[in-house]
Structures are given as structure tokens and as C-alpha cells.
Amino acid sequence: MDEKLKMNVKIMVVDDEVDLEPMIRQKFRRQIRDGVYDFVFAHNGLEALTKLIEEPDIRLILSDINMPEMDGLTLLTKLKELKNPLLKTVIVSAYGDMENIRTAMNRGAFDFLTKPISFDDLEITMNKTLEEISLTWHSQQEHDQLVSIQQDLQTAREIQQAILPKNFPPFPERTEFSIYGSMIAAREVGGDFFDFFMIDNEHLGFVIGDVSGKGVPAAIFMAVSRTLIRATGLKGISTRECMSYVNNLLCNESVSCMFVTVFYGILNTHNGEIEYVNAGHNPPYILTSTGLVTVEMTGGAILGCMEDYDYQSKKVAMKPGDLLYLYTDGVTEAFNAQEEMYGEDRLEVFLQTRLKDPIDRVVEDSFGEVTRFATGVPQSDDITLLAVRYHGRE
What we know:
The chain is 39% helix and 24% strand. It is α/β, with parallel strands linked by helices. The strands form three sheets. It has a five-stranded parallel sheet with strand order 2-1-3-4-5, with helices on both faces.
């Protein structure tokens, strides 16, 4: 039995026989002296209910059936209405009184004893009942803890969703480009993220990332990574300098060998040129009017694992109407009921049919496509998409 429930267990004896109280106190004198048991006595059901109001921490009731004013069977009915799982009743009746004993068990008695009472049998029954109370208490504690965790996770989800962009279009006054993104976590919280921000009047910074692992640790690492990249990128430094600086910070702060893959780019809104670093992330696609172009890798290592890594950047030119499509591996590594992976080939076939679609349609239809493919299979990884379309200057 749990230590918290072992000491000073309060037991109420309900019986109209006045000789029973001194007998109980004599039998359990050592446990009473040591503070293991604390006995409360009542002489009928009505008095027992009054005692329960005065001392709500009573855990075990030993009750006779035949008593004046309120008998034990009526008391059981009243106790059942309290709906207290930590309160157990053991009924006491004459040997052979099986009809009343059966009624008592149907009304919620945990166990029964027959008269004349054997104190050895009484002690065994008390210990068994108290063990059941202990198990119930543990179950309640675990349930309460689970509810608390679920509430915390819901709060964490709300916080995580709040830090991700959700208002589109985010820059309605800008006609040179449009941007749209979304993330669906596999659990309550996820490790994927995306973000974008105006560095100055002519440069848009944007990033997509995928943290190793899942759940709360990944969500915390995601929030840190996203914040560091945004804060560093807003300084206006190059993509390679930004990744090098953030990587060193994450290497110094990373625990449990966590890391993050990142694609960070800066769009020059004047001419459509994108300077970028791919730090171990999936290569994006550019949707042009004639087909798909895979954005070249830059050979960059994942962030958070190798301190002082020298990141290299590359540039790619976007023409008016072109769309840059970025995604995490939750898209390509989605599985269907036949254990087939969605893969790059299916993604490319899908994107070929969306070359000229509005930017929000491309993203939302991508989610729908992956969801249909994986019908019947629980989502195993976060899915995040980010798209940037260059419109050119008027």
C-alpha cells in the first residue's frame, strides 16, 4: 500500500452493539498507538452519514446490517450516491443471512464478514480492502496526471500554433510576391516549422525546418530554432552567415543529440533572385510555366550537430509566375495501407498538374493528396508546406 495511505487510515465502524468499540480498540491498540489506524464509531446509518460529513477522509466503513434509525442496506444506498471511489464498505451480517449479504453486494459493498466476527478474518479483510483503496488511489493519480498532461499539451499546441504564421496574405500591400504555408503535427505538438519575415523593403526571408524526434522535446527545440533563425535573419546577414551562427548556438545548447534540417532563403523582391542554404533538408521544387525544376543542394550539414561548420550558399533565379515549393519529409515519407511510401515521384506527378494554380490551392491540395494516399493509416510524421510565388515588379 502507498506510504501516503498507510499512515493514519481512518476507519469507521457502524454497529449498535456498544461492546464492539472496546473490543476493536483492544485488538488494534498497537496500530492505533503507532498512528496506522484511526477508528471512528457510529451506532446507526444516520449517525454514520453525519460522521462522514464531519470527517470526509474516512476510507473504510465496517457496517452492520441490522441497526435502528437507518440500517446498513439503506446506508449503502446513501454511500453509493456519494460516488467516492476511495470509500469502501465491508458489510457485517449473521452467518447464513445470504439474502441480505447478496443485496449488500449489489448495492456496492466491497466485501462482507459474518458474525460472530473473527478478528483475524477482520484484519485480513481490512488489509485487502485497503489495498484496493490504494490501487484506486493510484489509478486516480495516474488519471489526474494524464488529464494534466493532456491540458499542458493542448496549451503547448496552442502556443506552437500561435508562433507559426497563420494570417494570409501576410503582406497584402506587396505585389511582387505571395507566400502561403501550413503545418499539421502528427501529435499534439510537432517539430516542423516554417516562418517568413521582411528583412528590409526589398528582401523577404523565409525558412522551413524539421526537428529530429517528435513530441514535446521536438516542439521546444523547434521553437528555439525558429526564434534563433528569425532573430539572426532580421539582422540582414547572408544566408550562410545566418546558418553558421545559428548552428553554433544550437550546438552549444542542444541536448539529447537533437538536430534540425533547414532550408533558409532570401528572396530579392526586385529581381526574383533567391539566395539560399540547404542544411540537410529536402530539396524544394520550382514550378515554372513549363514544368518542375529541382533546387540544387548546397551540401550543408544539419543544424545542431557540427560546431563551426562552414555553410555555403547558392542562388537561383525566379521568373514572374514561378512558384518555390518547400516541404518536410512528412510528405514524401507518408505511407498508405499497402505500406507504400508516397515518395518524390508521386509528389512530382502531382505538382506537374498544379503549375499555374493559385498558391493556396497548391498547398492545400498537397495536404489533401497526401491525406487521400494515406487513408486508414495514422499520420506518423509532421507535415509542413511552404510556397513562395514571385510575381515580378509592375
